[in-house]
Design a protein that fits this description.
With 561 residues, this protein is of the alpha+beta class. It has 8 helices and 29 strands.
């Protein structure tokens, strides 16, 4: 099972490579994972008896098993009814306004909502779900609204119309709020603003913003938070989403942490261009042509591009195009009572897709994503990541077939390590070192799709451009446990003679990573699991020792072969 990635503050759009988020430690973070509809609210065909409870811990185990680090936390706004069933016996619980104080009953035969009474247990659940995910090293995108739940125009005009169970339906609240101002049996208007930027329903918007602020109050202190304004709002909701994006940003600006805000594909009839024109930090478009240009962090979500679709080819191609990846996963079929073939977790296509997301993440942790960009023309396969620098070098090319292909290595010089990865069985083969400086031809050592990884990583380097740290500090290596490589960083506050070495359990030196004078800054060294003689060492516990400036410290590491 994958180890949790440590958090170093909230995510922000990278300034060097804005295709990815970065954290306070300067790490570029590639996000990838599976999300499923029932991962937040309990839902099912019975109520007021509790609907089936989703096993959230088991779900997190599932994500961690596949080495995923990201998912959306789904929110349904209505208490009852959904477009995905053919009857009226489907419930969602809890919701932000689910205190149900009355007087009088709503359409679902339970007491009406009092919109002035937010349910504390709902927001406590939001926090709990984010905290538990954070303990596994996972980032969570909190869905604030859902356009799928407010309109009958998408097919729900009969028994399964979700608007019948929405708190802003005039039949369901005691506050006199009527979200259906045009009388079309939908609440599409609650996500619309009138022409010219005015508020189409100021009272509704005020309740929505109050709810958003309450979510922010609950999770602002957590590092692993992202926000998504709404899932698949219709094309008329652009101005409303823009307002909500700005509202989240303005409210968080006065708080200790600021988190990324996202905008997703509009449906039906929406244009992805409105996503790129927004103030959102990240977007989940319905489609994208070519390599990511860095204008926005792009989360390529199959919910918008293929529904429950995609395969491992989609994952690797997306990774090589500079996208973050998110899979709409049927998981165990618990949502909406569905039990169709596409939700069968035993299907090989879904297992390979999930595995591919974890594999791309593993490579992202080995690469310097801050200085790696997509360039399909670099490889004859059309899918390739290439370096922007010449010292730390990473090329990763994806080949969907087992035929030979070329990679243009003219941007760098010197020798590069060669590694082949077999996506079918997860095996790695080390190839013969290749000399860069020109276009080279490569022949995969196995049939079918393959990954070619070419790299040259400096043994140790120091960042002298940042402000000097205030004290010596040896950071925990990452990843840990590791195989075959791990990165060790240390803060150097003053120019000093530094030793950074690896030792075994008996205190014997295994490898000296650095021995010499260093300027103030952050020292970074990568250990490839080999000793001073270039021979691989065995699995086990090793210690990294930092000495210098009268300081010494030791860190514990675990190598798993």
């Amino acid at each position: 099972m994958a180890m949790a990635q440590p958090f170093h503050g909230p995510l922000r759009v990278g300034t060097v490579n804005p295709r990815y988020f970065t954290d306070d430690a300067g790490n570029a973070i590639y996000l990838t994972g599976s999300h499923t509809w029932a991962n937040f609210q309990d839902q099912g065909g019975t109520f007021p008896s509790p609907p089936p409870v989703f096993d959230y811990g088991k779900y997190l185990d599932f994500l961690q098993m596949y080495n995923h680090n990201f998912f959306r936390l789904w929110v349904m706004e209505q208490s009852r009814w959904t477009l995905e069933t053919s009857d009226d016996l489907y419930w969602f619980f809890p919701g932000p306004w689910y205190k149900r104080t009355g007087p009088g009953n709503a359409n679902d035969s339970l007491p009406r909502f009092n919109l002035d009474s937010l349910d504390d247990s709902y927001f406590a659940r939001v926090r709990q779900h984010v905290v538990l995910a954070g303990e596994r090293g996972m980032y969570v995108s909190i869905m604030l609204f859902n356009g799928w739940n407010v309109t009958s125009a998408k097919g729900g005009v009969g028994l399964n119309n979700p608007w019948k169970g929405h708190p802003f339906n005039k039949d369901n609240n005691v506050n006199g709020i009527d979200g259906d101002t045009n009388g079309d049996s939908s609440g599409i208007e609650i996500q619309h603003l009138v022409s010219g930027g005015g508020d189409g329903n100021a009272a509704v918007t005020a309740y929505q913003i109050r709810y958003v602020h309450r979510v922010i109050d609950e999770v602002n202190d957590l590092d692993n938070v992202l926000y998504e304004i709404s899932n698949e709002s219709d094309a008329g909701a652009v101005a409303w989403q823009y307002l909500m994006i700005d509202s989240v940003k303005a409210y968080e600006q006065a708080k200790p942490m600021q988190h990324p805000v996202g905008m997703s594909a509009m449906y039906p009839g929406g244009s992805d261009q409105v996503l790129y024109a927004s103030h959102a930090d990240w977007v989940a478009p319905a489609n994208y042509s070519g390599d990511a240009d860095g204008a926005k962090v792009i989360v390529y979500d199959t919910d918008h591009t293929a529904g429950i679709g995609g395969d491992e080819v989609w994952v690797w191609e997306s990774f090589c195009q500079g996208f973050n990846t998110l899979f709409m996963d049927g998981y165990d079929g618990s949502a909406y009572g569905n039990n169709i073939e596409g939700f069968d977790t035993s299907l090989v296509v879904w297992k390979r897709l999930r595995a591919a997301m974890g594999q791309t993440r593993a490579y992202s942790l080995r690469m310097d994503l801050q200085h790696t960009i997509p360039n399909g023309s670099t490889s004859s396969t059309g899918f390739c990541l290439e370096p922007t620098g010449t010292t730390w070098v990473d090329y990763l090319a994806y080949s969907p077939v087992g035929a030979s292909f070329t990679v243009n290595l003219s941007k760098v010089s010197g020798d590069l390590n060669v590694e082949w990865f077999n996506t079918l069985d997860g095996t790695t083969i080390t190839g013969t070192t290749v000399t860069a400086g020109s276009t080279q031809s490569f022949n995969p050592p196995f049939s079918g799709e393959s990954i070619l990884y070419l790299y040259r990583h400096p043994t140790a380097g120091v960042d002298e451009t940042a402000a000097p740290p205030s004290r010596f500090k040896l950071h925990q290596n990452y990843p840990n446990p590791f195989n075959p490589e791990t990165t060790i960083t240390a803060d150097i506050p003053v120019r000093s003679r530094i030793e950074l070495g690896i030792y075994d359990l008996l205190g014997r030196r295994v490898r000296m990573l650095f021995d010499g004078e260093r300027a103030p800054g952050t020292l970074s060294a990568r250990w490839d699991g080999k000793d001073d003689h270039g021979m691989p060492v065995g699995s086990g516990v090793y210690f990294c020792m930092l000495k210098g400036g009268g300081h010494s410290s030791v860190g514990r590491m675990l190598l798993l072969r």
